[in-house]
Amino acid sequence: MQKDGKTGGQAVPAPVAIALHRVLGMIANGEATSRAAIARLTGLARSTVSQQVDSLIDGGIVEETESSQSVRGRPPRALTISPRAGTIAVADVDVAATQLAIADLGGTIIGRDIVNLPVDRGPEELLAEVSGRLHSMLTEHGHDPARVRHVVAGLPAPVDFQRGCAVRPPIMPGWDAYPVGDYLRKQFGAAVTVDNDVNLMALGEATQEMADTPLLVIKVGSGIGAGIVTADGSVHRGADGAAGDIGHIRASTRRDVVCRCGKFGCLEAVASHRAVLTDLGIAPPSIDDRLYASRELARLVADSDTSALHRIRQAAADIGEVVAMLIHTLNPRMLVLGGPLSELQDEILSGVRAAVYEQALPLATRKLIITPSQLGTDAGIIGAIALAGREVFSQEGVGRLLAEA
């Protein structure tokens, strides 16, 4: 049997008919919820649409139910993705903790949990705990772990998207080149995608009703990173997965500060959440209380502490200077600020806005929207589920669904 490197030893699915893929895609996206609507929008013959829909229903991927709408004559029937078609499992890894979620193939979240292990405990311990907890969540909610269709893991590091591993991550000791994707494939027997955490945040923000693309997300946490969603809704990862790793661009101030990467004056070293906490003498987040540091910093700001206000405004100016360069390079329609430091919205937003509008040319900023995250800490989870859904309903993914039905 031929093996598929993305599916953990499963058989390579046969090519999916274009008509079948189009029909399923429209149902999954909510673009069309009836046979008649699919035929009208695609131009396919009704007999062809019915044949494909019947095949999907027989495979347990789609279900057809009577609509609750009140109409004359025969009640309309609505097509939806069957909740029995399978499950998505996602893990959003951060420095101090990992958020977990399971969802159905329609993107509805079924269950959530948090693993309170820092990344410096190493990949073996953390991934074992993540896998075990996800399996428990699936069982608790009545979902067969064998019917997980896709797993997505977000890492706070540059990621080799093809190999499914972190690449020389400054804040993740022991994770360099560790085969995260292979490990999770063995645990779940499903296709796995490993991506940078800010890329997932950007995808999550791009799903929101008020979002507009191109979209640029800046996460200010223990490190500083950027995620870029292009006008067509795809993520720009770069040739080697290093796109958006802006934390190691040199800031114009405090160039004598040593960064964890070994260089001097990196943006992460002078303007990250960790850097601000260190300079103000606030203990970093711990397993016992992940939110203590953020609460303490917010308290100092609320009390108009001079040192805290000055330090945050300096960080905002440093971030804004680098972001202004990105605005010129990428010309996004929307800039979203996320991460724990960005939760101090007035100070961070005003500082970043001031630097961007001062340093970027009017052509690049005249329609630019600068806003805090709409999803907050949920952005990575929502983005991971969206990415998994895209993969499940890709032509290759649909082939796997049909093969496993």
TrEMBL record:
InterPro entries: HTH_MarR-typ (IPR000835), ROK (IPR000600)
Superkingdom field: Bacteria
Coiled coil: none
Annotated ranges, domain HTH marR-type: 21-67
Protein name: ROK family protein
Source taxonomy: Bacteria, Bacillati, Actinomycetota, Actinomycetes, Streptosporangiales
